[in-house]
Specification:
The chain is α/β, with parallel strands linked by helices. The protein contains eleven helices and nine strands.
Amino acid sequence: MNSKLRSGLSGALFVLLIFLSIEAACEVAYRVYKGSWYFKDRRTSERGMVQPHPYFGACLIPNVTDERNGVRITHNSFRTRGPEFSRPRQDGRIRIVALGGSATYCVSVSDNETWEYFLNQRLGTNYEVINMGAPGGTSVETMIQSALLFSDVQPEIAIYYLGWNDARVQHVKDLWPDWSDSHGKWVMGMAMGGKDLQPHTAAGYILRRIAFHYFFPKKDSEKIMSGLKGTPDAFTDRIDQRALGHYERNLKLIAAVCRKQGVRPVFVPQILNYKVLTSDKPYGWLPFVRDRDLKKVMAAYNETVAKVAQQENIGYASEVLHLNYGDADFVDNGHFSPVGNERFAGALADALERTSAQNMQANSPPNR
């Protein structure tokens, strides 16, 4: 019995060592491929909080709370980040919604460290700020959100923090006007990597990548953007005017949707951490834009936001551009840290107070 037990234990140990060796090798392979460890990326990834959606491609999973690496993220029943809110609106508070991508959703910080949370603290108890941001969101998704969800949410003010994700389609060859051939496919692929399908190990991740590569290549979000072809201006500092024109069109449509529903929109220029965006190559999110050209690209997008805001006579939060951002304000190349979120929220609060005063002045009866 002892010899059989020892033999069984030896066999089990041998199998365990094989699995551990495979996992270690896969972790190293992931590190070489991605530049980071899989077990760390999985703890901080927002993908485990999304699911497929027939209109948006992906949406937040409702009624979940996740804590990774000390970061606590909560989704309510309406598939937005943060606590529950009344539907229809019941109290007398001014309801503000924030729409955009991961920089609005606020990845890598806890619920009480988002800029929406700090904005609510700054504005006071007469206001209610709801975070409707979603990872990967562009002006396309936020336009649909505004058109179809505001009837239930009933906001009075809608803040749009956009630009970074919209610039992903810069220099995409033969870009389709709804971006369904590029960013749209990526969003759907991201949803396929949601909570129920996210591998727990690096070995599982690599096996999934192999399966997607050979059997579901059109669903692999990590290959969709890299498989695109660029225009002759790719990897230059030239601006893709067609893609920028789509962005301007979307902003005008958002303004029209808000106006039709009696919602006051406020456009916010995009802020990135340009101190780390200096490479001659793309960091990956924008397939045809070099890191060092992102400042020029985002300047063009922010100028478009300002132009549309002026043309449509709506709010533009220029105050956020006047802050002197430092390393402590970011967790990466564009997402704010808790400190950055608090400073950003302060500038937004100043912008809201200014635009509110301007609206009151514009709507006040003339002196007799």
